Predict the 3D structure of the following.
Amino acid sequence: MSRRQPRMTSSGQPIRHTPLGTKMWNYRGYYLMFVPVVLFVIIMHYWPMLGVRFAFYNYRAFGAKTFIGLEHFRTMFGEKGFWTAFKNTLELSIWKLLITTLTAVVASVFLNEMNQMFAKKTLQTVIYLPHFMSWAVVAGIFSMILSPNAANGMVNGMLQDMGLKTQMFLQDKTLWRPIFYIINIWKETGWGTIIFLATLSGVNPELYEAADIDGATRMQKIWYVTVPALANTIVVVLILNLAKVMNLFESVFVLYNSAVMDVSDVISTFIYAKAFAANPNYGYSTAVGLFKSLVGGALVLICNALSKKVRGRGII
Amino acid sequence: MKRKLIAAVLTAAMAMSLVACGGAKDAGNAGGGDAAPAPAGGSVDQASGEFNLDKVVLVINGTLTANLENRQDAFVEQWQDAVGVPLEIQQVDHSGYADAVGRKFVGGDRMDVILLSADMYAQYAPTGALWDMTEAFENAKFHDKIKYPAVNENLYRDGKLYGFAPAYGNGCVTYVKKAWLDNVGIDPSTIKTFDDYYAMLEAFRDGDPDGDGSTGNTFGTIAAGYISEEAPYINYLPEFWQDAYPAILQDENGKWYDGFQTDASKAAIQRLAKGVADKVIDPTTLTNGTKDARESWFSNNQTGSAGAFTYWAGTWYQTLTDNLTKNEVDPEIVELEPIQEVGAYINREAPVFCIVDDGDGDNTREQAIFDKFFETMMDGGEVEMLWLYGAKGVHWSVDADDGFTTNPGTENEKVYGPYEQGQFHLLPTPNDPNSVWKKNAIDPALVIVPLEGEYAEYSDESSLMSEGNKFFTSHMKDAPSTPASELFTTYSSDIATARSKAIAAVVVDGKNVDEAMADYVNEVGDKVTQICDDLNAKAESK
């Protein structure tokens, strides 16, 4: 009967195994400190998850809850509005992600090229600021700027002064999405540059010196040195944000209206409308929410797999 | 040792925060979800058998004008002194009121009395959330003093009354800026038909009604949406909707049908589309809330404003005038008589005060709330005055005083008073000394139980508010009843959204009205049919 060999360190010393109980006692201060954290997570994050069971119940504000199995899911999949919202969520989120990532990369590259520190810092501050505005304020600002009333709306006033046709920017189905992306670019590009600028600060200056020696122009240095240096970070940012595409809500909620609902209603606004209707069926809202979470969870797993493939390690 | 101490302190701090998060919830009485029927708010007196309320919790929207900025504390104090029960007011913004009430029900928050619009009443009445006050109402001391009994008779659902309307509904009338009419040379008395009305809007669009020296920067009219979110739906643009009523309603035989799918509604939507295309309707109308529309209309900068605005009668006649004055715009406005195609302005179904049923099967507590809240509200005296005009000495007075001056030192300066002892007069608004207080939660001109005794003389007949109410009551008709059924409650939100989408598709996108209507039917037609069938089946079974 062979005896189990003790595990050894690289220098050949046996690794001593301390029983778990002893370890916990030795570090009891930390474990004690950790207990409230565990309790907090359980109560605030896991306990509410028990609410997903209501996806299988007829659950209204009044009257008894009744188990109805998958009925809500059947209703949901048969509802045209749900599929419109689902499609809009994916389209809006993914395009928004691609566009804002691209603009953040471009802005980072240009900021990185700026030598005048005061101008660089000022510009950075200016483009960061919109990130700290709430979406309600942003919507108010752009609603005024883009007001279809040409006497009050700056953009339509200019169009009218130039003899052009005024536009209903936030009420027109063909214009709403481009405007939505532009507002997102304005609000989030600055913030998005932080991670790319951090990456660029770590690029070896010798690469630029070598490029100079090789006679590279400024644009060639950007294209052959800066952009490749950012490639890995771009992929990571895209992957990490892909997991969040189902969470689109606030930016849409404050900007949409009945005229553009077909191109703007997303899963979260769909749930909101169902949850705050008169005598809502919370079971149905929960079912849609559960579906959204499942899709979100699947996206996280896909992103994790992609991350492993691209970076050699996962994100979870 | 130091590290252990820090660990212990941090642990204690986090534990405390957890305890704080799980603080006890206020005793609720709404039957929501898992929430068990809450402990009743008070106790039964063993000797007399009467229920002693610990307090009355009132949930109300902006209808209560004595809000926190306008000395609500004085109103509450005087109410408590008169009634003998503490009053807790939970006032919620008008715009989010329906959502907030829904959340309170589900959250099990304590609500004793809630104010509900006609739509909300129709939605909540069949749910069992509201107390059946039929018997209490019919035996009420004020019952025989009601001068407009039809207001509450219309609130019965399947023979039961779940709410009480202390005033009739009121409605909207079309106001036009007098200076604008003068500038474009139109006499308001000549506006008799839709064509006349439309010509006036076009004149506002094409001329220089605001007198700023340039043309084409003004609109004919503005509204908060092409269709209102709550009944009576069409009251902000009645000239365009005319005889259409885009809701589920009954025909002359009592049969329920969808008024939105009628030719009248299609014609109305096409009129709206033409109005927007012709730029006589301010295009912001689609996304405007009531506040946006109002503020644009009486804005200090009249460029981009509109000449006509359909809004609430009575109090708002005064308020709109006050705001124009405050913004240094010519404050004279004309109330337009309804055009022939409209016939009469719509008197909405009255908002109602309801008692939330605690679901314990015992009516003692609810009856106590009725006695303390509703009986006193309609006492014809001290407490009714509180609901009509607010707190004595704060919002109104009968004491002798030298009066006051609004907008002193300006061209709009106006002197009020002096007043003799016993002479009823309203005082300056607490949060705006340049305007005179108008009313509290119930419009004195609309109240269904008149003041009595010494209070019967307490009224301000000289005000624009009073004039506006008289104008409205002489040009009004009642709105159709909102149906009450569980199916209607369930689907009403989806149907309202589909209607708004269909209207926007025609008005904004220029879609053919028949195609837009087909989309509407495709989206919610089944739901509408189910509701109508359900209502008709119920009507036939009676």
About this structure: Chain B has a mean pLDDT of 88. The CA atoms of residues 270 and 513 of chain B lie 7 Å apart.
